[in-house]
Structure formats: structure tokens, C-alpha cells
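Hello support,

Our group uses your service weekly, and this is the first time we've seen a run hang past the timeout. The protein is DUF4173 domain-containing protein. I'm not sure whether the cause is the sequence or the server load. Input pasted verbatim:
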Amino acid sequence: MKNKSNLLLFSALLGGLLFTFLFWKERLALNLLIYSIYLLIVTFINPDVVKSTKLKIYGLAHLLAAVLVVVNNSDLSVVTYYISLLIFIGFAHNQQLRTVFTAFAAVILQLVTVPFNAIQQLSMVSVGSFKLKPLFTLIKYLFIPVIIVTIFACLYAAASNVFAHYAEETLTYIGNFFQNILHFFFKDLSIERIMHFCFGLVLTSGLLLAFFDKSLERAELKCKEQLVRIRRSLGQKTIWYHIVQTFTGNLLTRKMALKTEYIVGIISFTALNLLLLMLNAIDITTLWFGYEPSGNFSGELHQGTNSLIFSIVMAMAVILYYFRGNLNFYHKSKTLRLLAYTWIVQNFILIISVYIRDGYYIEFHGLTHKRIGVLVFATLCIIGLATVYFKVAKQKTIFYLFKVNGNIWFVLLLTFTLINWDVLIAKYNLTHETSIALDADYLLSLSEKTLPILDKNRKTLLSHSFIPKGEIIVSSTNDQILTRLDNRIEYFKERYKTTSWLSWNLQDWNTAEYFGLNK
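Update from on-call engineer: The timeout came from a worker crash unrelated to the input. Re-ran successfully.
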């Protein structure tokens, strides 16, 4: 146990040093890949970590996300990197977890409790006959009082300007005292660099030192994927029973309460199906075939799309509510299931309308991140509806939905990260400049990886030949557009000259190659 604690603590310390070397005043790129490789190696050599197939899959997924940061270097790739890292660490230290959501929550808890984990690990360290446990026992007694005093000092400083003045002077004096000592021994180091190292040490410790409390893991183990019929005695009443009893008095038994819920479900799904049938009929006749834009169709499409997506999410919530318990086993529930399936099919049709609305938006205004986001969200709604259908048909639990959808969403997140969206948007919009309302200001707001494309298409960028009927396009003047483009190019050239190999990524290299900076 002591050898393992020494190994993990040494790995955390080495990780902190590696962190400050890789990320100090650097951009996130190749350094993230190096840091991930280090974390993967330490995690897999940790004897307390079970090297299961699931862990290896999520480890490879995180490694792919780290590689994509180097290849695409987009905001999405960085977000995917962090999410995949937290999920991998969560599964590494909680082997019995089954959903990515719980794994994510577990590692957040692990990061928050870094001081407690570190104290527990350090208390087991010994150098010969010298043991650190008495020292950290004293620190444990002082930790909570220090936190409490700090919180109240901040509150008093906010309440009194005089107190805040003296507190600020005290902190400044203490900071200068330690900075003078530091400069006396190490002239090249700074307080900022030391704080950066401390942050890296805390972060690495949180990722490598497992949280000793497994309550979250034990709680998830109680969750089942298959629904079972719960037989309650007459003394056990559900919340729904008490709600119905408010209006009906004591006329209902448990059997009658279930029957009442069934009847309410029949009425609800019948009415909802008729309502959605009317909306789908309107969309099919006016939107699917022969749609002609008029007025501010851009705003209408945008507002309509948001409302439809929200309605689809609510539709899934309604189905989950009615098929959450014993109603799944009610002998007359066949009609209710048929109405629910019809409701699901109609929501599929509604999603097609969302695709068509967004397609019209892209046809007349081009690609943007938000319009792509609508397509992605609609795809997630299709997956959600499909799994909800399977939940109702196979009598699965909501926990099952979280497990399956979590894994699917994670795979889709990695898949979408493979695409260089900024480059795709710029190429598509500039290629279709004669048929869309080209938004030069939006294209100039894209990342620096699009600069070669914009520079090649300067004339196209300045053209505003197509304006959809009923739309008013407001954009910068041609001189302003050219000035912004030139300024961004010059900024990139200056930044690239000061970039070290730790910030290397393929997109920056390609952009620099285009502007002749790699010679």
C-alpha cells in the first residue's frame, strides 16, 4: 500500500511539473496530446485500476480526442478532449459504473475532493522510519478552520471598505515576503509560475488519485435496466394516488388508481395525437412541397425550429412519465402503447419538418454553427425517440435510456469532432455565394484556419449579389471587410512567429505554409 501511495504521489508531482512545462504561456495543441499520453500511462500502470475492455475503449476514445485537437484544433475538439478525459478517468477509478453521466459526475467529485485524497495518500508515505502521518493529521485539523476563516474574511471585506483595505495590505505584504524569498533563491521563477505549477499539481492529483468514497458507485449499482412490477400493499400509496384522491375521496383502491392513470393516459395521448396530426398536416402541405419564402422568413423559420425541438423533448418526457412504472404491466395497456407508438411516429414526422426548415435556412443563408447545431440536435432527437420506443416496447427503465443515449451521444461527439467545421462552413458559403446571402462578417469571425480560404476568395467575400426575397442584409463595407481580413492575417503571422513546438497543430501549420512562414 505504501509503495503504491508513493508511486501515485510521485506521479502526481511529476505530472504537475510536466503540466507547467507543457502549458505555461502555450496554446492548447500538441501539449494536450503529450499530457494525455502521460495520464494514460500512469493510469494503466496503477495496480488498483482494472484494465477492462471498457476502460481500454474509453482510453482509446480519449487518445483519439487528443489527436483531433492536434489535427483540427477547434473549440469542439477541445471540449471533446475534456469530456472524454473526465469520462475515462471516471471509469478508471469507478470500474462498476455503467453510464458516462455518472462517470463524469464521479470524476468531478474526485477533483473537488483533491485535498482530502492527497492528505489520505500523503499520510501513508514514509521515508525510512520517518512518517508523514502526524504532520498531515495536524493539517487535517487546520484545513476546515482555514476555509471557514477565509470565507468570513471575504464577507467582512465586502461589508467594510476599511476591513477590505487592511486585508488587502496584509495579503500584499505576505505575497511580497514570499516573492522576495523566492527571488533570493530562484531569480528566474515567479509567483505566477509557482501558482501555475500548483494548479497543474492539483489537477493531475485529482485525475490520478481515486476518491476513497464509493457512494456514487454503490448508488448506481442499485439502478436496474429492466422494469419489474412492484406490488404494493394497501398501506403504500403513490403520489399519483394522493393527487387523484384529492378529487375523488376514498373511492379509489390501488387497482382503480392504476385504471384511472390508464384512462387519463388514453385521453392525453388521443388528444396529443390529434393536435400533432393537425400540425403535421399543415407542415406537409405548406412546408414540404412548394414552399415559397415571404416576409421575414428567416425569423419565422428560426422561431418555429426552436419551438418544434422543445416540443419533441417534451413529447419524450410525456411518454417517460406514463410508462415509468406498473402501467407497463397493466393488462389493458395495449391501446395506450399503440397511441404512444403513434405519437412517436408523428414526432419523427415533426423532426423531418425541422430538417426541412433548417434546410431552407441553409439554402438561402448558408451554413453557420447554429444551423449545423440544429441538424445535430434533431439527429439526437431521432435517437432519443428510437430509444424511448425501445424502452416502452421492451419495458426498460429510465436508467437504461441514460446508459444507451450517453454512449451514443459520446460516439457522435467524437464523430462530429472529426469534421473541420469552420473550413467546411467557409468553403460551402463561398462556393454558393450566388445562391445564398453571403455574410462576410460571420466568415471573418471564424477561426484562423479559414484565413487561406478567405484570402483566396477576396473578391467573392466582397460580393453581395444574392439577397433572399423580403430579407434585409446589413454588413460591413468592402473596405472594412478587407481591413479586418488583413489585420487578422497580420495578427496570425505575429502570433505564429512566437509559437513553440508545444503549441504545434496541423491547422496552424497549414495556414503558415500558405502564407510562406515555414521557410
